[in-house]
Every structure is written in C-alpha cells, then in structure tokens.
Amino acid sequence: MESERRSMLSLSGFLFPHLWTSAHWFLLFVCLWTLVSGSSYKQGDPVILYVNKVGPYHNPQETYHYYRLPVCRPKEVRHKSLSLGEVLDGDRMAESLYDIRFRENVEKKSLCELKLTEAEVEELKEAIEELYYFEFVLDEIPIWGFVGYMEESGFLPHSHKVGLWTHLDFNIEYNNNHIIFANVSVRDMKPVSLDDVPGGTLSVTHTYTVHWFESPLTVERRGERLRDFSFFPKTLEIHWLSIINSLVLVVLLLGFVVIILMRVLKNDFARYNIEEEAADDLDQADNGWKIIHTDVFRFPMCKSLLCSVIGVGSQFLTLATVCLDENCTCPDGYLAPSQLLLCSSIQLAFAVSDKQAGIIVMALLGMFNVHRHGAINSAAILLYALTCCVAGYVSSNFYKKIGGDRWVWNIILTTLLFSAPFFLTWSVVNTVHWLSGSTQALPVSTVLLLLAVWVLVGFPLTVIGGIFGKNSAGSFDAPCRTRNIARQIPSQPWYKHSIVHMTIGGFLPFSAISVELYYIFATVWGREQYTLYGILLVVFAILLSVGACISIALTYFQLSGEDYRWWWRSIFSTGSTGAFIFLYSVFYYFRRSNMSGVVQSVEFFGYSLLTAYVFSLMLGTVSFFSSLKFIRYIYINLKMD
C-alpha cells in the first residue's frame, strides 16, 4: 500500500506539470499561428466583408445583429462559422453585399436601394439617437463606424437633427499579398436627413467606395497598425503614479510585518521561552498567544466548506498565474500552486512574477491580439476546465489532513462552489439578453458545448484531482497537542471584532489596486484596449503580497487576545476585498460611465458581483495559507512541555 501511495504521488507530481506545459504550448501555437497567418490574396481575388453587430456606444455588452436594422442585405443570409470565443463575445458575422476585390479601387458603387417605411425610419432614428455603431470584419480586422449622425444645438430655438450615413468609404492597406489594415470613413459626405420625412416613407440609395494603399508593415506586424489607430478613444497610458503608490504601500506593509511584528515576536519568545525554574512565576500571569497553544490548532466547523473555499481559490490563482516549471517540487504532498501560497509574502510576490503564467502572462506573450476575436474567452474556458484538478486536489488533500471523512461530499461542494453561482448569474443575464434579442444571448448549441466541457472535462478532473489529493494526504502534524475541552475565549475589545478586521483587511488590498481598477473597468466595460499586461502582473503580485501581510498581522492580533478561532477569520479578513471591489463597481457605474438600460445594467451588476466573489475566494485562500504558515512558525519556535 505504501508503494502504491508513493507511485500515485509521483505520478501526480509528474502528470500535472506536464499537462500544464502541453496545454499552454498548444494554446500558444494555435493563437500565434492564427495571428500571423493572415489570408493571402492575388490581385482581383474577392475579399469577403462580414457584417457583425450593432449596439449603443455607451453599452458595450448590449449588441444586436447588424441585419436587425433596415439595411442592405442579401436575399439569403449566410453566416460565418465562429469559434467558441467569438460566440461568447457576441459576434454574429454574416456575409455582406459589398463587392471588394484585392487591390482594385471602386468609386461610388451602388450597394442597394431601399424604400423605408415609417416604422423603419423611426427605428433608424432611435438607433442613431442612442449612438448606435456598427462592426464589420475584413480578413479578421474589425472595422467600426457610426450608423448615422445626430446634432443637438441651441436652447431657444432648439435644433435636433438626425441623419443616416448612406455612403461608406473603405480605406484598405496591404503589403504584398496580405491585408494589413482597414477602416471606414464618412468624411466629406452628407447624411440623409431622417427628420420630417414626407409621406412617412423614404427612398435611400446606399453606395460605397474602396481605396487600396500600400503599407510598409509586414503581416506579422499588422497588429501594431490597429493599436496605433482605433475608432474608440485611447486614453490609457502607463500610470506610474498608481504603481509607485502601490509599491510604497507594499514596502510599508512589509516593513510593518517584518520589522515591527518580528520584534514583537522576539520579545514574546524571550518572555515565553524561559528556564524551567522561572516557569512557575510565568504561570501566574500567563497570557497572550502562548496560553492558547492547546486550542489554536483545533479544527474549525464546516471543514468541508473551508477546504472547498481554499481549493477553488487555489484554482483561480492558478488560472491567473500558473506555475509551469517542471522543477517545481511538491513538499509534504502539496501541489506547486498551493506551495506558493504557503510561502511568505515576499516570496509569494517574487514567485508569482517569476514563473511562467496563465491568463496574464499569455497576454504578455501577445496571444490576445485584436485580430484574434474571442481568444481570451476561449483560453479562459479551456484553462478553467483544466485547472479544476487543482481545486479538487487542494480541497481533498487539506480536508483529509484535518480529519474529514466525507470526501465525496467535499468534491461535490468544491465543484459547485463556483459553478453554481456562475450558472445562476449567467442564466439571469442570458435570459435578459434573449428577451431583448441581443447577440450576447448564447445559442443552444453553445450552451450544450459549454455544458459538455464542464461535464466531460471540468468535473472529471476535479474528481481525479480529489482522488490524488486524498491518497497523497498525510497527517496535519500540528506543533501543539489539542486538548479535548475548548478554552473559554475572553471578551474582546471592539477593535478586535470580526467586522473591524474585515474592514481593515479588505480596504488595504483594495487601496493598492484601486487606481488600476479604473483602467480595468474602462477596458472591460468601456471602449479602451488594455495592453499594459506587464503592469497588471505587477499589480496582481502587489495585491497578493498586501493580502498576505495584512492577514499575518491581523491573525497575530487575534491570537494575542487569546482568540483561537482564526481559521474562518483569516479567510474573511482579506477575502472582504471582494466587497470593496463590488462597491467600487457600483461607484463606477453611476459616476464614471454612461451605461444605461436594463440589458447593460443586469450584465454589469451580475458579473461584477461574480467577479467580487472570485476575488474573495482568491484573496481568502492567500490569507488562509499565509496565516497557517505564520501560526506554524511561531508555535514551532515556542518551547513547551
């Protein structure tokens, strides 16, 4: 049996790093190949222009199919085959009537003639007044433009003009046999007025022009051209003040924990570790964290739930920054990602920033380029499914260590801890999109595919990870014996209550990332393109470091008050950062954005709440393992009978 256990442990230590390496190299190959292998054309070859979606400018997640508007469309609409990431991003590409041929200019060619009814005119007016924009796709290059023109001027008399753009000027850049860049312009064109339409009907003729320009950029560098020119405003810059502020906060916290706390511990050790002849005198006035050494490792209530929290938290930490180094060791049966969580705060920051990584470092490698529609969505789903084994392993391993015997229920709880809230949130959001006819509503086939990924990959890997974790778990090996009768906890001052610790433990990590949060929100819920992934990685490491420091400090203060119930307190103290993130999202919605409407509001608050929940799991996990490592350290170095 012992040889079987060792072989399974060695198999798990071999399997997981190689599984991660293979998966990420496969993703890297596929994404980079798609990026640089743009279609090759010969002069005169047809270039298909796909129409995609339209929607209000200030509501990025409220999008509709382009052909929902009364525009020129073919008799038979043929849709492009889309990837999973593109579907999740709300793309619904369909072939258009535009006849574009490689390196052949076109001068004001008629696209179609439309006779708009009164209802169709009102529909277009409403869309233009809500600042509807459209998105076309040409050789994987997105092209944006506004549907029409609106002008508000004067107070008395008030002027309100609405016009429809009926002519589009396409400017396409090429290099050899490849398309480098494309955009659309309505400069020097006059819109067709939609005000006071006589008879309620309006006849319009849609036309277009195509101009080709040679570019010095090669196809491998065409992403640079799109980054330099964008339809949406670009205001994000490298914000050094935010980084300096966060770094100063980290230095101060590290100084507090390493210098002040260690000096206090040194005095405690000197006072507690006395010679035997002075022990009787100490017993008369024994207080502080030494006196609870027989209770500090008393296992908490709801052990299965606690283990599920740290298991899922470890999974999301792995999803964000994954250790792929084949030389990562697994001491004491721990998987490498959770090994990182047991390090001190300084080691944690360097470990996260030094290793090869998941989503963030994949972005640093340029895998999520603007030409690759939905790449980050596809990568996140694949990585989430593959990292389910981490959640099962960490949860089951620690559950067995602290004496849990219902490991099957523990695996089920670990599986449902994130997937159940996510499914509930997605169901509400998707229903709202479906009722409004938005392209963000997922088709039945995509829902079944995602369900199959979870059932056939995510859940089995959670079970497999749980089996490995249970079989490789040793004893908890507490430095102190736990007595049968729990010690009575003295009344605590107000500043040592849970709500105070949660406020302090949540606010300080939040303050370290508050400035960066604006840029992230402006990217996810706005029109910005986030390319500062290096800074994002640094801020993420800062967040983990601050969370670990605060957790250690708050745990020490709690133990000094002879309160040994640190298990759940350590998770909630720093995990409360998620509550501050959600409060910031509410502030951003009402004070920093122009979002409105039921569709956009439901999506924003639903997924913001889910994001805050994920942050709570991640930071709660970091906080728990940091506190556990700290408590082991101080009680191992305490001399006891």
TrEMBL record:
The chain crosses the membrane at residues 240-262, 374-395, 407-429, 441-468, 499-521, 533-554, 566-590, 610-631. It is found in: Cytoplasmic vesicle, Autophagosome membrane. Its main location: membrane. It is a multi-pass membrane protein. The keyword Transferase does not apply. The keyword Aminoacyl-tRNA synthetase does not apply. It comes from the Eukaryota. Residues 1-38 form the signal peptide. InterPro entries: EMP70. Keywords: Membrane, Signal, Transmembrane, Transmembrane helix. Plays an essential role in autophagy. Belongs to the nonaspanin (TM9SF) (TC 9.A.2) family. This is Transmembrane 9 superfamily member. It comes from Polypterus senegalus (Senegal bichir).
